[in-house]
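Fresh eyes needed here. I'd like your take on this protein's tokenised backbone:
***
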Amino acid sequence: MFKTCIDNVRTSVPLVHNITNYVTVNDVANILLACGGSPIMSDEPLDVVDITSICGGLNINIGTLNERSIGAMFAAGKRANELGHVVLLDPVGAGASALRTNTALDLMKKLRLDIIRGNISEIKTLASGSGSTKGVDADVADAVTEENLESAVEFAKDFAARTGSIIAITGAIDIVCDDKTAYVIRNGCAEMSRITGTGCQLSGMMTAFAVANPDNMLEAAAAAVCVMGLAGEIGKSRMQDGDGNSTYRNRIIDVVYNMDGETLEKGAKYEVR
């Protein structure tokens, strides 16, 4: 099932326009290349309309906002909507500041978003209109656990129904859903949180998967989450004495580069609710 999703990315090589933060821009580009996609980066308002016009998808990441990039997000998003392109919003740090929260809410209001991907605190902030996060990380009090999983799934489905978007909540347990069906995913490992940008990388890769699988976007988004989590598991197993988070980042990208459909099908850990 997920094999088809990754195979379609490798075959079609989707071009993804990324308006992403400058902390992780290089890693986002590399993970897109690794999974079989093609990245292009632009956050200049005078440039983004032309750039997004030649792409198949737009990945909007609010991790390092400024007035110029905010204008670029709306301009590119409007053009992507006009062309029927996939648009993904990664509301990094929504709840941490008024600017991040209000920008994310305004993007939701003015653009048609195919996918919203964030941690549980960011998604709760968007759902309620306000909230709090631990910087750009999820608040421990919000964490999805086995004990609150059922209510978290219902919350995500309800938010999907309200927005018309696929909702991807990532953490120790991941939830990817529309208003009817949820994938609960248990790939990944805690060490991935020691690398900056794994979520940003996932958003770029998820956009490519959605572009390459337009008739099966929910499954494609879930497949991307499994790819990233499985890459974290395999990458961790290859760590050696003296390796740290910088090596681990590279190993994850390398695993994605070498991952095939059979490996993904065998290693994906998920259930459908």
